[in-house]
Amino acid sequence: MKRKIEKTESKKRQKEREKKKLRILAAGDIHGDISLVKKLAKKALERKVDLIILTGDITVDDYVPHGLLEPFAKTKKQVLLVPGNHETPATADFLSKIYNNVRNIHGRAFKIGELGVFGCGSGNIGLFTLHESQIYSLLKKGYTKTKGTKKKLMVTHVHPSGTLMERFTQIFPGSTGVRKAIKQFKPDIAICSHVHEAGGIEEKLGKTKIINVGRKERIIEI
User: Fold this and answer.
1) Pick from 103, 139, 148, 155: most CB atoms within 10 A?
2) What is the DSSP letter of 172?
3) Domain 21-221 listed as CATH 3.60.21.10
4) What is the mean pLDDT of residues 131-148?
């Protein structure tokens, strides 16, 4: 009888763990601001997040200030990032080699629990650009590596075309490649930054929630 009760309790605990949502701190457009990185790292510890995601434009014109991501490294949290239009994918790879807990997911994927995270950085305008077909192709490449996960989170620097975020800028067009990927792969959540004025904006494209995470931070549970 006692063993049956223990087994029942064990199953309940397992189900509770499975139901527990992952907590993510996401931000973008840091632009080499170490003081901002320190604030974000402190917030990550305070909110006990499982994951930190940076949506590009981490540097200023590809210049990396010394120790830029050190505060994140000290949190011991897993950090995922994509390059923006202010740094090359090579620079994003360089940052991931400096710190053990930092990973560049540009055209790649990362799995944690039941969640698959895939991404594509750079932009369709700016210093370091990609053609729309390249953006879609890299997102597809990452998405294929998330098979087997129940939930999907897509990370880009640029926002999808035909969305509310486009109304906040006359300079930065939305990406047709990102929009096509959302419609094709149907991630649960898609996050971006790029348009500073649109930080905090949420909207939906089909069943996908799209969030411009902005510079400050956004806590996401999925």
Assistant:
1) 155
2) S
3) yes
4) 97
